[in-house]
Specification:
Layout lengths: L16 H5 L5 E8 L8 E8 L2 E6 L8 E3 L4 E4 L1 E3 L14 H5 L2 E6 L9 H11 L4 E4 L1 E2 H9 L9 H16 L4 E5 L10 H13 L3 E5 L7 H15 L3 E3 L13 H13 L4 E5 L5 E4 H5 L9 H9 L1 H17 L8 E4 L12 H9 L4 H13 L4 E4 L4 H9 L3 E3 L11 H16 L5 H6 L3 H6 L16 E4 L22 E4 L2 E5 L2 E2 L16
Parallel strand pairs: 1-4, 1-5, 6-7, 7-8, 9-10, 10-11, 11-12, 12-13, 13-17
Antiparallel strand pairs: 1-2, 2-3, 5-18, 14-16, 15-16, 18-19, 19-20, 20-21
The structure holds zinc ion.
Zinc ion binds next to loops.
Length: 523
């Protein structure tokens, strides 16, 4: 990543102060339709960039070392993607998927999982020369695993809780933006609300926020929102609900109720927002969503022991059948397999197809046995086509909803390469769900202020020069479930801290990003 150089270059000639102030900028973007990220109407203008910052906006005469003709293009703040799993950027520093959809800042460490040593992670991101800015949360699951050892289906002892609090305090001091939980994943799923409140209080003391993958995103979602509200209230912390969704047919149609519950919490004075990605399928490990919680205690080794015992495997299968019915599905045809290392031939198949291929039958018993065999063989990812488009659109229209991809470098779901372009193309331009300026706000100033990222997510003099230029008539996502790594069209230029990372559609390889530590309490 670039060293901080938020200064004008030294001038070699004595100049009048007035002239010095207008010394040639590093880059001028000409004739752009500027959407500044606040939601105000677009206007035409030039943008001058110097020393990694926006130097001026308006009708700017003179010349610059470098210029981009942006006639016909929208200039917006680079997109701030607050829900990602980006630990892998240290090994994939070009951040192709994110950069090519206009994302200039990612927040990692979500869903309860982060690097334990946040300071080391941020330093490694800098040293790796990542092309986009990187920030992180500290994961409650990560901290819980370190403090409690292998047996998780219990509350922590007082000593263990104190250890968790210390680890969170260390991470916050090292620059974490806040605390994340993943309450469907081991070991977070075994934490009671009181434990979460205690640990969130530590993050609150440091001015951080609480971002949560809730315990239930299905028919029990209102109880889970109640838990988020309780944490926000009792820990005195700003809360962010991650990837808001209604998973499973039996939960469909509840989006108005969910938004009402969140509105009541805000009316009480609590600061609660939520993010979402713009797809009706989710993606996570096959184990996390399909294997019952109580089979997960103690980790993979214990799970495999249980699955090796026919009586216990049968009991697990019975719970799986019941959970499937609770979700309103007759079988697992809504689940597609990804990233199956042991048997790559299964990748892309729905579970019934995989059952037919491996067991010669697609009966529900054979589907369940297929899932269990995948888990025994080391697990896999899966894509779950379990949401409704109507709920998605209801959530997206809400002014408190911000847009985040839940993507990762190399992710097997199209959101990792398409999410932001899909917001601009499909949902703003084609379906006219929201004005383009408002859609941009949901990807820029709203996430940046929520996560306390100062001088990001807005185009104004003095702000960091993170800028995306897109063609509002052509921008569209092209990544699909079959080809999730296809990059979007209509986003020709992406600038990070003043340096073009995408130029005329080509990745420049510029190590332009910075590690962003927590700068100020979340507003
Ligand atoms: Zn999650």
């Amino acid at each position: 990543m670039a060293a901080d150089s938020s200064r004008f270059p030294a001038l070699s000639l004595p100049l009048m102060p007035a002239l010095a102030a207008t010394a040639a900028p590093d880059l001028v973007i000409r004739r752009a339709r500027i959407m500044d990220g606040t939601g105000r109407p677009a206007y035409e203008g030039d943008i001058a960039v110097s020393g990694g910052r926006v130097a001026a906006i308006g009708a700017l005469p003179g010349s610059a070392a470098d210029e981009i003709d942006a006639a016909g293009l929208v200039a917006a703040p680079g997109f701030v993607d607050v829900h990602t799993h980006s630990e892998g950027l240290v090994r994939a520093p070009r951040a192709e998927g994110f950069a090519r959809m206009g994302v200039t800042t990612v927040v990692s460490g979500n869903c309860g999982g982060s690097r334990l040593d946040v300071g080391a992670f941020l330093a490694e991101a800098e040293a790796a020369g990542v092309s986009i800015n990187v920030a992180t949360l500290v994961g409650h699951g990560t901290v819980r695993a370190r403090a409690m050892g292998g047996a998780f289906d219990r509350p922590p002892t007082p000593d263990e809780l104190a250890k968790m609090e210390d680890l969170v305090a260390e991470a916050m001091a090292a620059g974490a933006l806040g605390l994340s939980t993943g309450l469907i994943y081991a070991p977070g799923t075994f934490a009671k609300t009181e434990e979460i409140i205690a640990v969130a209080k530590v993050a609150a003391t440091h001015g951080g926020l609480y971002a949560t993958h809730m315990r239930n995103e299905e028919t029990g979602i209102l109880d889970s929102i109640g838990e988020v509200v309780r944490v926000a209230r009792e820990a005195g912390i700003r809360a962010e609900i991650a990837h808001l969704k209604l998973h499973g047919k039996t939960a469909w149609g509840r989006s108005p109720e969910v938004l009402e519950a969140l509105g009541r919490a805000r009316a009480e004075g609590l600061r609660i927002t939520h993010d979402m990605y713009l797809y009706t399928a989710s993606s996570t490990s096959i184990t996390a969503r399909l294997i019952p919680d109580d089979a997960l205690d103690g980790g993979t080794e214990k799970l495999l022991q249980r699955l090796a015992d026919p009586a216990r495997a049968a009991a697990i299968a019975r719970v799986m059948r019941a959970e499937l019915a609770d979700r309103g599905f007759d079988d697992y045809s809504y689940v597609a397999i990804t990233s199956c290392a042991r048997n790559p031939a299964l990748n892309g198949l729905r579970i019934p197809e995989a059952a037919r291929a491996t067991r010669g039958s697609a009966s529900l018993d054979d589907q369940i046995e297929t899932v269990l065999q995948i888990v025994r063989d080391g697990g896999a990812g899966a894509i779950y086509h379990a949401m409704s488009e109507e709920d998605l659109q209801t959530f997206l229209r809400d002014p408190h909803t911000l847009i985040a991809s839940d993507g990762s470098p190399g992710g097997a779901h199209p959101r990792s390469c398409g999410n932001n372009a899909r917001a601009l193309g499909r949902y703003a331009r084609d379906l006219k769900l929201l004005p383009l300026e408002e859609m941009v706000r949901k990807m820029t100033s709203l996430p940046a202020t929520t996560f306390g990222l100062k001088d990001r997510g807005v185009l104004r003099p003095g702000a960091a020069a993170d800028i995306v230029l897109f063609d509002p008539d052509r921008v569209r996502d092209t990544a699909t479930y079959q080809e999730p790594r296809r990059h979007p069209e209509g986003i020709p230029h992406v600038i990070v801290n003043g340096a073009p990372v995408i130029r005329d559609g080509e990745h420049t390889g510029a190590p332009a990003g910075r590690a962003l530590g927590r700068q100020a309490p979340a507003a």
